[in-house]
Specification:
- The protein contains 7 helices and 18 strands.
- By secondary structure, it is of the alpha+beta class.
- It folds into 2 domains: 243 residues, Glutamine Phosphoribosylpyrophosphate, subunit 1, domain 1; 80 residues, Immunoglobulins (Immunoglobulin-like), CATH 2.60.40.10.
- It has a 6-stranded antiparallel beta sheet with strand order 7-8-1-2-9-10, covered by helices on one side. Strands 3-4-5-6 form a 4-stranded antiparallel beta sheet, with helices on one face.
């Protein structure tokens, strides 16, 4: 992610000469101390035609640490400095907000907006900053484990609806972030998109599980551009639903290799993996907590699930690249054969 955002100060200065191309609009950063997950989601009325990856440029997810958003007249130097202050100097969210205000690369923090949440102390912390000269409507909401911020908004209700979706949703951090994004699924949430009848033009949702590589997050959904009149949050929801149900495909677009699971009467399962080896199956519970890791070195591997509940399986190759994801229920009658397209 950092390599992607190192676009150079010259690009940022070019953006600043076009104010409407220099904004990012509504977003949320959040953490879940119970599972160790950190997440980031947001959207804007810009897309890949305006700036590479659209809304995604604001997101800096640091696995096992937290997530930072830098938005409104986005400058990569400020984003990189924020990252370094957290990773190198261990600044808390509150301390980072103060540091960014005092050390803006262009000496103009009044046009910036930031949000951060972390869990490095074992407790959730969050903070946000909204400069007085950000474009209206502007503001932020900070909760115990989340920060929601936005500018160029239809009104305050965009943020309060995002908060209601996040707080009112039972489930994993990913589900709560998706619900927060649906709270902003309102025509003109970013007022520049009002005439088009959509909330935004690009959106993203990212969650790092404990131990993730920053360049290979467990959940990394990006809707960089949408056809005119198509709601990107709806597209994001569809991609999220596919990921959640275990029907996601490999990055090259090929269908994932099937993992066949046959559950024996004694609770043990046999895994038949037809994909590349060696591979690793990482097992998570319904809250996203990592439970087990199983090496897949041949066509058949014995596995004893640590629980009978619903599990989520993530298969990675020797380089750590994602091969496939699927959902498995240990409560199904035996024998029970599952694959990525059949539960």
């Amino acid at each position: 992610m950092r390599d992607m955002i190192l676009l150079g100060l010259g690009w940022a200065l070019a953006l600043l000469s076009h104010p409407l191309l220099a904004q990012d609009t509504f977003s949320i950063v959040a953490v879940d101390v119970a599972t160790g997950q950190v997440g980031s989601a947001g959207a804007t009325c810009l897309d890949d035609d305006d700036i590479a990856t659209g809304a995604l440029i604001i997101s800096d997810v640091i696995p096992d640490v937290g997530a930072i958003h830098t938005q409104s007249y986005w400058v990569p130097a400020n984003q990189n400095a924020a990252h370094d202050q957290v990773t190198d100097n261990g600044l808390s969210p509150e301390a980072l907000m103060a540091w960014l205000e005092a050390n803006d690369v262009q000496g103009n923090p009044a046009i910036r907006q930031y949000g951060m949440a972390d869990l490095v102390t074992g407790e959730a912390r969050a903070a946000a900053f909204t400069g007085d000269n950000c474009m209206d409507w502007k503001g932020h909401i900070v909760g115990p484990n989340y920060a929601i911020q936005g500018n160029i908004l239809l009104g305050e209700e965009i943020l309060t609806q995002m908060e209601a979706g996040f707080v009112g949703t039972e489930g994993t951090l990913a589900e709560k972030l998706m619900a927060a994004m649906q709270g902003a699924n309102v025509a003109g949430a970013d007022t520049r998109c009002l005439d088009e009848g959509v909330s935004s033009r690009s959106a993203f949702l990212r969650v790092a599980y404990p131990g993730d590589d920053a360049e290979n997050l467990t959940l990394d959904l990006v809707v960089a551009i949408t056809p005119e009149g198509v709601e990107p949050i709806d597209v994001l929801q569809a991609e999220f639903d596919a990921w959640w149900s275990g029907t996601s495909v490999a990055e090259d677009g090929a269908a994932p290799a099937p993992l066949l699971i046959t559950r024996k009467a004694d609770g043990e399962a046999l895994l038949k993996w037809s994909g590349p080896t060696p591979a690793e199956m990482v097992v998570f519970d319904s809250r996203g907590a990592r439970l087990q890791s199983v090496a897949l070195t041949g066509p058949w591997t014995a596995w004893r699930p640590s629980t009978d509940g619903t599990l989520f399986l993530r298969l990675i190759d020797a380089n750590g690249d994602l091969l496939s994801t699927m959902q498995y229920s240990g409560t199904s009658p035996t024998p029970n054969t599952q694959r990525s397209d059949r539960e």
